[in-house]
Amino acid sequence: MTVLFAFYVKFLPDSNGVQAPANKRKQEKYVSNLSNIYEQKLLEYESKIIPNLGDDGNPAFLTGIEAKKGEESLKKFALNTVLSDRMPLDRKLRDPRNKKYLGAKKFKYNPKIKTSVIVIFYNEVLSVILRTIWSVILQTPSRLLQEIILVDDASTEESLKGLLDHYVNRRLKDYNIKLVRLKNRLGLIRARLQGARVAQGDVLIFLDAHCEATTGWAEPLLSRIEEQPTAVLVPIIDVIEASDMTYSTNGNFQVGGFSWSGHFTWIDIQDERDKNTLAPVKSPTMAGGLFAIDRNFFWDIGSYDEQMDGWGGENLEMSFRIWQCGGRLETVPCSRVGHIFRDFHPYSFPNNKDTHGINTARLAHVWMDDYKRFFFMHQPGLENNPIVGDLTHRKQLRHKLRCKPFKWYLDNVYPEKFVLDEGVFAYGQVRTEFEMCLDDLQLAEDKMGPLGLYQCHPYLAMSQYFSLSAKGELRKENFCAEVFNRQDVELTECHGHKREQYWVLYRNGTVYSPSTGKCLSSDGVSNGNGVKVHKCSDTVYQRWKFDNVNMT
Ligand code: UD2
Ligand code: MN
């Protein structure tokens, strides 16, 4: 193991945090005693591992008191840590790649470059981190693996200190593992940067500390970078269940999108031809945790925004930057890595800062040009807030790299993205003559619910922002007003096929539903309830006024 003194390395503290005595001989004895203690601990831990548990990625179960403890740990850490501790660290997984293509000659890769794999962690479970490392060691041909770099973002968890050092020294001594200990918690963005700074491989592959790499995962990533160093690649991210560690392959894979509120979303592949191919598929954004990038290109294109703190936003920042500044982002379907998706963050953030919001405000200012208006409609409090910090360096970077405008990105990389106020018939608040407005009634981003009516807000809030699209959809970002049972109007996922999601706006303010022959009506609807379609009548209840109308 190489321990990097450039950063802070805690020298084998004992579990009570007692410091070693100064005298050299005594110190050597102390270290050897301590090492024995860790070895004991490790042997005890290893003796409890249940052979073959979870093999092939099958669901794993414990029984009795351990099962109960496991369930409790799931509530506390969003992950069954007891189960993970009992599963072999080198568990075998099935080859998750699509068998249909495996024999094909052109999918035999033979890259000649090496990668550094960078795994950052803050208070993750030791067995989960070790399983991540073992999966990389076992699934990556050694000729392709320069090193594994572990970056500890100043974890406070005791098992991640001396015991982890000991494990790396003893059990992983035949592999090139570097352990970087950060003195203070820097957040995942700067932690990754520290890892990248010591990396020597031609390529950097970043992984979260709760992943499992599978057969042949690295070769197609490295091959593609060898052929096209400006391509940044994402494997298919399969799901490892947090409750029973099942490895589930995600059949019809998706690529990355984003919402105007600044969140990463999964989207279906748009081009039908891309669904059944093993060739890399264009991806507008990436989830952020698992990706491969040429090391020089990583630095040339501006690595990360070092002023981003904590968690969140860096993935969209990097995605937009890569595309706008001359790179490409692609998902590689025959490279697959499992990731434990957790229901909540098992760790807290210093000062409870909304780092996702602040980081996204930074990227919106730097990369999104005028389109940042949509993000700040969701987060008005961040628009002119000094908490967002100085942006000079990132703006200079954009200038220096002569990056393209965000509009170019939307038009060329993500043309499916619905822009709320472009190419639409009308947009904004939609009011009745009684100062009531259409309102999504705070519909969650992924659920359907009634299209409601609510007192108009004096300022424009996203819950009252609607567009009448070029296709005649009365819609939010991804949800469209659809008539059900010929009377109720629900917001549901847009399907793009008109039918009950088709609306026509007349000059007098009537909003007509051709599929039912009825009109959108506020008649008898009280504050906070759903609007209906009724037989068309020329009454005030069927007149709607959009803030902005583009009809001629
Ligand atoms: C997703 C990404 C994650 C990151 C994040 C946005 C995937 C699968 N995961 O969230 O990599 O891009 O979106 O920022 O794409 N960590 C630290 N220091 C901290 C907090 C976290 O080192 O202060 C580590 C953590 O131990 C983990 C990694 O950062 O290894 C990512 O954190 P996460 O797993 O909680 O994020 P996730 O998967 O929800
Ligand atoms: Mn993660």
Automatic annotation (TrEMBL):
Q: Does the keyword field hold Nucleotidyltransferase?
A: no
Q: What is its EC number?
A: 2.4.1.-
Q: Show the InterPro entries listed in the entry.
A: GalNAc-T, Glyco_trans_2-like, Nucleotide-diphossugar_trans, Ricin_B-like_lectins, Ricin_B_lectin
**CDD domains per the UniProt record, alphabetical:** beta-trefoil_Ricin_Pgant1-like, pp-GalNAc-T
Top-level EC class, please?
Answer: transferase
On whether Nucleotide-binding is a keyword of this UniProt record, the answer is no
Q: Which cofactor does it need?
A: Mn(2+)
Keywords noted in UniProt: Disulfide bond, Glycosyltransferase, Golgi apparatus, Lectin, Manganese, Membrane, Signal-anchor, Transferase, Transmembrane, Transmembrane helix
**Location of the Ricin B lectin domain:** 424-547
SUPFAM superfamilies per record:
Nucleotide-diphospho-sugar transferases, Ricin B-like lectins
The UniProt entry lists membrane topology as:
Single-pass type II membrane protein
Q: Which compartment or compartments is the protein found in?
A: Golgi apparatus membrane
Involved pathway(s): Protein modification; protein glycosylation
Task: Name the family.
Answer: Belongs to the glycosyltransferase 2 family. GalNAc-T subfamily.
State the protein's name: Polypeptide N-acetylgalactosaminyltransferase
List the taxonomic lineage: Eukaryota, Metazoa, Ecdysozoa, Arthropoda, Hexapoda
